[in-house]
Write the structure tokens for this entry.
Amino acid sequence: MKILYKIVLCFCLCLVAITYSAKEGNASVGNTSNVVQPAGEKSVQIVTACDGRKRVIVEGCNEGEAMPVHKARKASELLMQLMEFCEEEITAKLPKTEMFIQLSINGMPYVTVRDTEEIPLVLVHGGKSHTEREKKVWAAEMDRMINEGYALFHNPGLGKNGISCDMCHPDAANTHPETYPKYQTQMNKVALLRDMINWCIENPMEGEKLAEDDSKMKAIEAYILSARGGKILEPGKH
Ligand code: HEC
């Protein structure tokens, strides 16, 4: 899916390379005043994406000249990466040294990244890593949900005959969440993990099925997935 998306992007991305001379005063790039080069800067080339929201300013390239191939490649790769962030308005600066990249996101001041792998982090968190407190809160919330699922899984309350999930699936054994969605013959359709959870509630346990968005269903899914973590995703596998 991601590959398809990238191919579509490739077609859509009509790169417009415009050379600007940023000699004092005459560097103007439309309505984004924050990208105007300061006086005295060398020439730049600006590569713009067709969505009008992303641009890469390549510093150290002379007006009217084609960029060296490695720079052109770097600029287009960077632009393609930025295109994955559809809504955002991003200006990237590729300095002459190429040691780092500067990004201005939605009009915010430039932040510096060393590697394009840091771009998602910068976009989501403004370049700041998560605080210890944040991580603790998230881990506690996650534990709470998993523990709720564990309790439901080890309790006959979901059914009517005194049987609980763990009696047939100790430690969530044989639940194979990594194989969903997959075709299930007893339903004659492609089932999600939650469909199978409901199937077991209704059949071996003779209970009432849960609504898909029931918090109990979410908790059971969270428990099963966490108990079977580390498995390679193999949707459709039998
Ligand atoms: C009496 C035994 C029994 C109980 C109790 C039971 N299951 Fe199952 N479960 C099965 C069997 C048998 C299958 C295999 C069905 C199939 O794939 O055709 C299964 C399949 C599953 C699957 C799909 C596994 C796969 O390989 O695709 C999941 C998920 C699952 N059960 C979850 C649960 C949950 C959650 C509960 C409690 C709400 C539960 N089961 C209770 C016997 C049980």
In short: The chain has two domains: 2-125, 132-227. Residues 2-125 form one domain.
